[in-house]
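Backbone-to-sequence.
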């Protein structure tokens, strides 16, 4: 079928909105008519060539829409269901069977390979039939229609605008899940979050849901610090104007229980370790701009304090359970994701990328 998609043709070039051909859904696939799709940092770094995906290709992995058709073997979804698309996983490996699908042993090929498991393409150019990379995170939802499967297509409530829901598939799920699932922060605990982007602010909202007593946001942009306070942070720190560790220790002298880094900056990770109290835990979410970057660690200090450092993928969540939970929290006014979102018409994807990179919006969502 002919669809409209934003095609990435070469690294660091603008997206080209054009007509392409999408394969029909197979017996185990789901065809989703995309209503809105979030713009994630991962999409941008792939488009910039930081992660090597064969180009031309169609990215996008925070799709939300309505099921248009399902294959014969699909049992959990039907035409007309409102859904959020999330990361892909096999559902059969040891990690999936343990309820940890974000650590699926097949995560890399299922989410970054440009083809189906059998090597077939889902996308090609109209007219010429030349192949286009698809299947990005099992969806490639920078398009009017996308193919997924019933593992990574999650049914959601009918009474919430789809515009707000796409980022639950990755960014919001990652930030909130780091606090609510991976760290499982206890009520009354203290937490510090580095980075006031969509992932970091989702972590702040997750900390509020968990009942954390002290919630510190470290963010250089004044507007985002103000938004953090509005969302429930008890304190904010400008890392350009203050010594983060000294300020955090002034707020909680014994150190916080948890730290979350969404920035990927080594200097932030080092500061996060300095803010932790005895037996504190640092959750690493942000991807360093330099893949070879190393975190210096004072082993004696870590040993004497009983510190834990853990990497977190997709919030350690099970999307089939966690995404509907976040939707219910949003409906109850306890996870106000709408305050983070700026909507752009799909045709303005390049404007959205530019404004998100410049910090003019927190979370860009492209709408059809």
């Amino acid at each position: 079928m002919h669809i409209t998609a934003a095609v990435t043709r070469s690294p660091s070039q603008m997206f080209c909105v054009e007509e392409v051909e999408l394969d029909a859904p197979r017996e185990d696939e789901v065809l989703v008519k995309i209503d809105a799709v979030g713009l994630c940092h991962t999409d941008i770094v792939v488009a910039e060539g930081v992660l090597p995906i064969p180009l031309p290709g169609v990215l996008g992995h925070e799709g939300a829409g309505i099921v248009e058709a399902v294959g014969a073997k699909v049992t959990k979804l039907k035409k007309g269901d409102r859904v959020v698309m999330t990361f892909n996983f096999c559902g059969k490996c040891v990690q999936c069977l343990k309820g940890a699908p974000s650590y699926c042993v097949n995560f890399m090929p299922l989410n970054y390979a440009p083809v189906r498991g059998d090597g077939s393409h889902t996308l090609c150019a109209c007219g010429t039939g030349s192949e286009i990379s698809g299947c990005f995170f099992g969806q490639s939802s920078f398009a009017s229609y996308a193919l997924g499967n019933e593992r990574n297509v999650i049914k959601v409530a009918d009474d919430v605008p789809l515009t707000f829901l796409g980022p639950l598939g990755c960014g919001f799920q990652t930030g909130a899940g780091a606090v609510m699932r991976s760290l499982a922060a206890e009520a009354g605990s203290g937490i510090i979050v580095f980075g006031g982007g969509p992932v970091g602010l989702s972590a702040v909202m997750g900390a509020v849901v968990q009942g954390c007593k002290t919630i510190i946001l470290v963010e250089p942009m004044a507007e985002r610090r103000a938004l953090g306070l509005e969302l429930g942070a008890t304190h904010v720190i400008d890392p350009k104007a203050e010594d983060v560790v000294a300020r955090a220790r002034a707020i909680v002298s014994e150190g916080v229980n948890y730290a979350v880094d969404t920035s990927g900056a080594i200097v932030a990770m080092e500061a996060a370790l300095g803010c932790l109290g005895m037996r504190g835990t640092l959750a690493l979410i942000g991807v360093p701009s330099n893949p070879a970057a190393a975190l210096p660690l004072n082993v004696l200090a870590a040993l004497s304090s009983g510190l834990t450092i853990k990497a977190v993928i997709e919030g350690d969540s099970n999307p089939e359970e966690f995404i509907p939970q976040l939707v219910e929290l949003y409906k109850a006014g306890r996870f106000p994701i709408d305050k983070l979102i700026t909507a752009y018409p799909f045709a303005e994807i390049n404007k959205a990328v530019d404004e998100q990179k410049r910090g003019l919006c927190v979370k860009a969502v492209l709408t059809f």
